[in-house]
Specification:
heterodimer, A: 320 residues, Rossmann fold, 7-stranded parallel sheet, 5-stranded parallel sheet, 28% strand, B: 282 residues, alpha/beta, 2 domains, 9-stranded mixed sheet, two-stranded antiparallel ribbon, transport (chain A), electron transport (chain A), DHS-like_NAD/FAD-binding_dom (chain A), Rossmann-like_a/b/a_fold (chain A), ETF_a/FixB (chain A)
């Protein structure tokens, strides 16, 4: 019996979510008295995982895996789980992990709970709390199968350092044939993604037009934030769909969410509800967003945001 | 080929004959392609719904809730209509649920699907739903299954992938563009921070979302569609499994938020101070 965590990487480096799933796995392992094994694919240096509680890392090195492939990756994790006799497999909530999770679940005859936000409240029956109704509620879900898969919501558990070190073992699983071939990947490598961002700066119709998005981008630059937008903005074509956050767009679970000129429709608030601290800047004091926010400024974004950007720049320079 | 026909007929009184031949050609090509599509339809609370629970927070309170086609599924259904109109595909829709979901299936018929199937059991978990769908897809020899990447009620996000795995079909999720030509498909998938173009083959299962068609392409059923939908077949099948893997035992609502701290627009320093010292997020 052990816990297996899939530690995602990008260009040979672990993503932050990798450290979070290890921390989460360690919490379960401590509860049931076992150890954490991590499975990593094409990572240069895996030693970091020991600092968060992994005792063993299975490292797969194979150039054909440089591009993500759901079926192949699910096959690898399945073989690692079988080799380790793992009862619990922990994944993140990245687009890739959510893609492979159901394939892995069928392969392992395992029940799968996605969007889990806390360590299991109970081991027998295995019970986890997950978001439902697109963040408008939570459900306590029992996984009743022998093997369990937990998809941990990004940024919900946090990083917990542990003293220890991990041994690394080369792992060469067989790769299933995949019927889906990646032809091209179009990804901005210099921009932080909404899924990984600690801070998200988001604009709404209050910004009046796409030509004013420099305001949002400048503020995001200072904060190292990802940019996002409300549904009307993506529907109007001011910003790409990939930036649309809300119930039918992307969920946001950042530490800080700054909403500029967004009134706060119920669908939008649902999508960003998992963010820890919310700031709203809007001219209309009656905007529903003020009821959901932690901090608010009633004011004109065109005046407030340039000032905020400048002052944050000075603040960052001082605290660097 | 159309052009040759046009040359043959263009000159003369045979112009009608050209149209007739085109019609025959269309029928012929329809026969050639005739892709069978199944669109999975979840019956979910409208996005504006307030979410409440009853029976000691163990049941979702449907009182006063308006149910709709799951938005992610509706983008897929609309794309399927394109395949029907442009490529002669047949489009069936399916839901796993009780009789209360039938109006939602009728709406899909009114939008233009040819026939509907309802598997008569409560959708208890993603695994059980995928299992029922797998049976229908295998028995019905469907080439393409379009589901939403997730439903907006339980957000499990597992049914399309599990289904693909069970029937050994190819699978693309977060799909924002799809084209099918013969047995080959090209799709675009949204990834964290960008997108990815893939090629694959039928049989194929898609987890769809906005982008598959635009919001403005969505169709509101018209009166004729609604009248026709009443006469279209809605087949009720009995479930084949009762096995589940997960079990939603209770619900909770988020803890109500404290009141917002308002900062004066002329006092931005205070906001920075609060974010740094109180919230500790910068």
């Amino acid at each position: 019996m052990s816990i297996l965590v899939y530690t995602e990487s990008d260009n040979g480096q672990f993503k932050k979510t990798a450290l979070e799933v290890v921390s989460y796995g360690k919490a379960i392992a401590d509860k049931i008295g076992t150890t954490v094994t991590a499975i990593a694919i094409n990572v240069n240096d895996t030693s970091e995982l020991g600092n968060y509680g992994a005792s063993k890392v299975l490292n797969v090195s194979n150039e054909s895996l440089n591009t993500f492939n759901a079926k192949a990756y699910a096959g690898i994790i399945q073989q690692a789980a079988e080799k380790e006799g793992s009862d619990v497999v922990v994944l993140s909530s990245s687009a890739d992990s959510k893609y492979l999770a159901p394939l892995l679940a069928v392969g392992l005859d395992a029940g799968y709970a996605s969007n889990v936000v806390e360590a299991p409240s109970n081991i027998t029956p295995f019970t986890v709390k997950r978001t439902a109704f697109t963040n408008k509620a939570f459900t306590n879900t029992e996984i009743t199968t022998a093997t369990k898969i937990v998809g941990l919501s990004n940024n919900s558990f946090g990083l917990v350092e542990a003293s220890g070190s991990a041994t690394t073992e080369d792992f060469s699983p067989s790769l299933p044939e995949s019927g889906v071939v990646v032809e091209s990947v179009d990804k901005a490598t210099d921009k932080v993604t909404i899924a990984d961002a600690e801070v998200v700066v988001s604009g709404g119709r209050g910004l009046k037009g796409p030509e004013n998005w420099g305001l949002v981008e400048d503020l995001a630059d200072v904060l190292g934030a990802a940019t996002a937008c409300s549904k009307p903005v993506s529907d109007l074509g001011w910003r790409p769909h990939s930036e649309h956050v809300g119930q039918t767009g992307k969920p946001v679970a950042s530490n800080l969410y700054i909403a500029i000129g967004i009134s706060g429709a119920i669908q939008h608030l649902a999508g960003i509800n998992s963010s820890k601290v919310k700031v709203v800047i809007n001219t209309d004091p009656e905007a529903p967003f003020f009821k959901a926010a932690d901090y608010g400024i009633v004011g004109d974004a065109f005046e407030v945001i340039p000032q905020l950007t400048e002052k944050l720049k000075a603040f960052k320079a001082q605290n660097a | 080929m159309k052009f040759l026909l046009y040359l043959l007929c263009a000159h003369s009184k045979y112009f009608d004959f050209y149209n007739y031949l085109c019609f025959l050609l269309k029928l012929y090509s329809k026969k050639q392609e005739n892709m069978k599509i199944l669109v999975c339809i979840s019956h979910v609370p409208d996005t504006t719904s307030k979410i409440n629970f009853t029976e000691g927070n163990t049941k979702f309170d449907t009182n006063g809730v308006q149910f709709v086609i799951n938005p992610n599924d509706e983008f897929g259904l609309t794309r399927a209509m394109w395949f029907k109109e442009k490529q002669g595909a047949s489009v069936d829709v399916i839901n796993v649920g009780g009789t209360e979901t039938e109006p939602t299936l009728r709406k899909a018929l009114a939008i233009g699907a040819d026939a509907a199937i309802r598997v008569n059991t409560e959708a208890k978990d993603g695994f059980a739903v995928a299992k029922e769908l797998a049976k229908v897809v295998t028995d019905g020899n469907y080439d393409l299954v379009i589901a939403g990447r997730e439903s907006i009620d339980y957000n499990g996000g597992m049914v399309p992938g599990m289904l693909a795995s069970m029937i050994d079909a190819n699978f693309v999720t977060n799909c924002i563009h799809l084209e099918v030509e013969g047995n080959n498909a090209k799709a675009v998938r949204e990834i964290d921070g960008g997108k990815e173009s893939v090629s694959t083959t039928l049989p194929l299962v898609i987890g769809g979302q906005k982008g598959l068609v635009e919001e403005s392409d969505l169709r509101i059923p018209n009166m004729r569609g609604i009248m026709m939908a009443r006469k279209k077949p809605l087949t009720v099948l009995e479930p084949t499994t009762s096995t589940t893997e997960t079990n939603s035992v209770s619900f909770e609502k988020p803890v109500p938020k404290g009141a917002v701290t308002l900062v004066d627009a002329d006092n931005i320093d205070q906001l920075i101070n609060l974010l740094h010292n109180e919230a500790k997020v910068i």
